[in-house]
Amino acid sequence: MSGPSLTIHGGMIFDGEQLCEGLAARFERGQLTDLAPQSDLPPSEQTLDLAGDILSPGYVDLQVNGGDGVMLNDAPDVDTLSRIARAHRGLGAQMILPTLITDTAEKTRAAIDAATRAVERGVPGIAGLHLEGPHLSIKRKGAHEARFIRPMDEDDLQTLLAAAEALPVLMVTLAPENATTDQVHRLHEAGVIVSLGHTDADYDTCQEYARAGATCATHLFNAMSQLGSRTPGLVGAVLENEGLAAGLIADGVHVHPATMRAAWTANQHPDRNPTDPTGRIFLVTDSMAVAGTDNPSFELEGRLIKREDGRLTLEDGTLAGADLDLTRAVKVLTQEVGVSLVESLLAATTHPAALIGKDVSLAVKNRSRIETLIRIRADLGGVSWLMSTR
């Protein structure tokens, strides 16, 4: 939107911090100027009645493997990234971290180069890059190809350090089994978001790696050491350590709603600022090529992955990413887990954005230009775009 003033009314407004009822939002040239009862606002050139729907900043998804029928691993180039980002914008995500699943060193370098060029060209929605592997644990590999998993060597480290300089955001999922604390420290110092995942490391080791600079965990509960009575694992480390954030695939398939509920309760700290992302659980889709399509299946490195009943599985039944968008994740979190709508929206917008150093707040006090807004159906059944300045 540019030029005309616009007033949006008739529904709840999530401004990135709180959920506002009975208020209208007035924009001028893409900037939120007022949030007040509609009767208190000056006339606008355009008005939009939400008819009970929800106005929100666009989502931020930090784990996106594919969309529009393609995977980043298929062809890591700018065209692939553009297709994936466009598919997820249609699902409400204003920013994504396209994610390369464990692959060759050559494919990793190609993905870094493609993401760098996409950012330089201003491809809408590309915030940086997430490299999920190849320095993972064989034991907890999930759908990752074992033949590509290996220890991080000095060449790998230098590649990642160079990528951190070239990219605005670089997230790296790794396992203590195949990376050292010194490597993690060097990555953290270079600004890389180090996320522990696909690991069987014990609780003490995970805490040691957190002290070295890891600040996140990848898809909580999945492909990691579990919480046991005498072996807390990475799950226990995440729930105890206020410095470890964690992505959560809230589709009701990867994690049972009761398990999500217990984790969410454990993650609450009453004295923490509600918009502070440190140590927060946030929502991710871990979406694959089928995102934004009706495709019944796709291939990953020559392996068939079937789409059925909200699941994506290899032929042996192993889960291979998720058939999920963030509106459905918010719906599962609110209706099946019992998390409030405002907390769920924070987990899909403000908290993941802050983790990568971005601000998506609509708060009037910010006086910043709004890039994207979405209209979420009142029944959380989908989204439509309202505003985009790109």
From TrEMBL:
Example GO molecular function: N-acetylglucosamine-6-phosphate deacetylase activity
Pfam families noted in UniProt: Amidohydro_1 (PF01979)
The protein's Enzyme Commission number: 3.5.1.25
Residues that span the membrane, as ranges: none
Superkingdom, taxonomy of origin: Bacteria
Alphabetized SUPFAM superfamilies for the sequence: Composite domain of metallo-dependent hydrolases, Metallo-dependent hydrolases
Keyword Metal-binding: yes
InterPro entries from the UniProt entry: Amidohydro-rel, GlcNAc_6-P_deAcase, Metal-dep_hydrolase_composite, Metal_Hydrolase
Keyword tags: Carbohydrate metabolism, Hydrolase, Metal-binding
Domain Amidohydrolase-related: from-to ranges: 54-358
Record family assignment: Belongs to the metallo-dependent hydrolases superfamily. NagA family.
PANTHER family (alphabetical): N-ACETYLGLUCOSAMINE-6-PHOSPHATE DEACETYLASE
Name of the protein in question: N-acetylglucosamine-6-phosphate deacetylase
Source organism of this protein record: Aliiroseovarius salicola
